[in-house]
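Technical annex, item 7. During the second reporting period the consortium partners agreed on a shared format for inverse folding records so that results from different sites could be compared directly. Each record opens with the tokenized structure and is followed by the designed sequence. A conforming record, contributed by the partner at site C, is shown below for reference.
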């Protein structure tokens, strides 16, 4: 399986795991409980996330504690930045248009 960031993030279960880990570090058991998924499913997706660098783990007693690693997400955010600027310009133009032409029954702000 390719470890391209978008390939990894395309899977909804992996995004749910990242969402849960964004709240706090967790072991597999806590993720199984939080996501109501079977342990093998969570472990499989954690392995993909770990191999792609999205999560890291540390050992505490007999448990592996997982956490989000920011670097791959920062790379995704950097890739998206030109599109954010494009969307921002379009939304700004729409706001200007709506502000100058309030339409029937609407007051300009």
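Designed sequence (site C submission):
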């Amino acid at each position: 399986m390719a470890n391209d960031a978008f390939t990894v993030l395309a899977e909804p279960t992996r995004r749910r795991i990242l969402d849960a880990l964004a709240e706090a570090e967790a072991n597999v058991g806590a993720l199984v409980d939080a996501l109501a998924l079977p342990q093998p499913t969570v472990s499989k997706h954690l392995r993909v996330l770990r191999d792609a660098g999205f999560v890291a783990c540390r050992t505490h007693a007999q448990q592996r504690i997982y956490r989000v690693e920011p670097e791959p997400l920062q790379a995704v955010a950097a890739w998206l930045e030109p599109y954010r600027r494009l969307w921002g310009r379009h939304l700004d133009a729409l706001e200007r248009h709506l502000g100058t032409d309030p339409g029937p029954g609407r007051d300009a702000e």
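The mean pLDDT is 88. The beta strands are 26-27, 55-60, 63-68. All partners now use this format for quarterly exchanges.
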